[in-house]
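JOB MANIFEST
job_type = single_chain_structure
chain_count = 1
residues = 106
[input]
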Amino acid sequence: MRPLTPSLSITPLGSAVTYDPQSAVKVELGRLIHAAIINKRFCQKLLTNPLGSIEDGYCGESFHFPVEFLERIQAVRAETLEAFSVQLLQIVNSPRITEKAVVRYQ
């Protein structure tokens, strides 16, 4: 009998399947970063104008991000693709709702 390959392994009963609500955003981020790696001109444009680059797309392909994400990406400023990627991951991994506290000054 041939052993099962890792891709065909059977998961044990009772193992939980987790859902990542940010999975679609992460897939789009992967596409965006890959486009920047492939094309230096697109990379430079992404670093100088992230929102414009996303809206313009790459080689006829468009990127699909939620409006909330697009609003937050406007603040990203980086000189390297690595620094840009770190900031994007911080956006994705940060809470969606900003916590606010009321402070009274006297």
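[summary]
The CA atoms of residues 98 and 104 lie 19 Å apart.
The chain has a mean pLDDT of 83.
exit_status = 0
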